[in-house]
Write a structure and sequence with these properties.
alpha+beta; 10 helices; binds flavin-adenine dinucleotide; binds iron/sulfur cluster; 23% strand; globular; six-stranded antiparallel beta sheet
Length: 455
Amino acid sequence: MTRLARPLDRLRPRYDVVVVGSGYGGGVTASRLARAGKRVAVLERGRELVTGEFPARFPDLRGEMQLTGKRLSLGSPTGLYDVRFGEDMHVLVGCGLGGGSLINAGVALRPDPRVFRDPVWPAEVGADGLIDEGYARAARWVRPARDEAAAERTKFQALGSASAALRQAPVRAPVVVSFAATVNPAGVAQPACTRCGDCCGGCNVGAKNTVALTYLPDAARHGAEIFTHAKVRHVGKAPQGGWQVHFERQDATGDGAGKTGTVAADMVVLAAGTLGSTEILLRSREQGLALSDRLGRSFSANGDIIAFGYGAKLPVNAIGVGHPPKVEGLDVGACVSGQIEIVDDAELANSLTIQEGVLPSALAPILPALFIPNGRLLGALKSLIAGVYKGPFASLQTFFAVSHDTASGRLVLQDDRIALTWPGAQDEPVYRRLDAAVDRLVLGAGPGERDPVVL
Ligand SMILES: Cc1cc2nc3c(=O)[nH]c(=O)nc-3n(C[C@H](O)[C@H](O)[C@H](O)COP(=O)(O)OP(=O)(O)OC[C@H]3O[C@@H](n4cnc5c(N)ncnc54)[C@H](O)[C@@H]3O)c2cc1C
Ligand code: SF4
């Protein structure tokens, strides 16, 4: 497969536009501005992983994890899974060319229109009609689709059997997956999804419509120059006009010259994700750039939780088999096939969506070890012997739930690194509501062990 990134030594001194980050925000910007004839450079801190290079086995994960916290810094700074441990909340983000699209579940939902009526958003966002045009354009590129065969998936059926508890049947979820082989709008050939379930580990088939397979190839085809291993530290006004972008090379070995670099641009677009862009701005402010005192405030976690339930009456089969498949004949489905949508017309905050999810196959060998210490999963030993695709893990349910929180988190710089503080986050009303809803689903699914493990 053709690689998009070029060696960092070929970075020019100046561009019309420097785009920092290569997830959805960066990919769309690079593609559109390159099409508009701008000289564009994309700077991404992570590596380029092409289809077939995503971790397939547990040992592969070692080089792909980066774990940071107050007194913790482990793993490679270019590892694909970037976990930030906080005192009140932990955050997982993607690191690599394509950003979060490489490891997300790819569920493409539109926010409830009431979200943008909240005065925290500029009125134009909800009122000028451009957002609808934006959705339509994005849909042409990432092509959300509902799996025709979703209802045949055991995890969908398990959610269905439990859903009576919430008096709401599941529907097929729109996911950015190619369920049939195609040549996408960027001219990239994509094979059909094999329903291996590994979307959150990284798609080794090439069927997930990631930014790396859509907007970024389009940007490159229109002249954008894409660079990996460039971690932007801060931006400042350039003496000659425009901006100066200061970055740290992640491909340099040893100390000294060559570890840092700069590039100038008429315009800089920060698209390094919520944590990345805020970190760059906070550092830039420390370096003297005048910025709002609201920077870093009102962080929201989207009211998200991931929860596990076990003891379902029906087999769930929600552990990915990967590609090539680790076991034959198990049609797991895309990471999310079905979801329960509960809309509260009177109170937006009470609206929630609960999806059935899949754990990536690379994690499969350690699942028994993860659950045994709590003594939570009876028969886990049987699974160790029989493999996690049989025994109690076949009835392990993973739920992704999305709702609305109060956006009371704060991002600050601590020891030159971004840190999330959110005292009382665990008492947010949304988590009580989601816990209760997941609890009812787990109880509705079967008679076995009932406590959902909520992370
Ligand atoms: C496991 C998981 C599952 C998810 N599932 C869903 C889902 O089903 N549906 C959904 O809508 N959302 C989902 N999300 C969230 C979604 O992926 C993110 O909201 C989305 O990726 C954000 O896009 P972005 O462009 O703002 O940032 P990102 O996609 O995070 O991209 C930012 C990029 O900037 C890079 N970067 C960061 N700092 C720097 C720096 N200093 N210098 C240079 N580069 C930098 C990062 O490496 C990254 O590549 C999920 C996320 C995760 C982690
Ligand atoms: S289910 Fe497998 S093949 Fe399909 S998109 Fe997800 S990772 Fe790719």
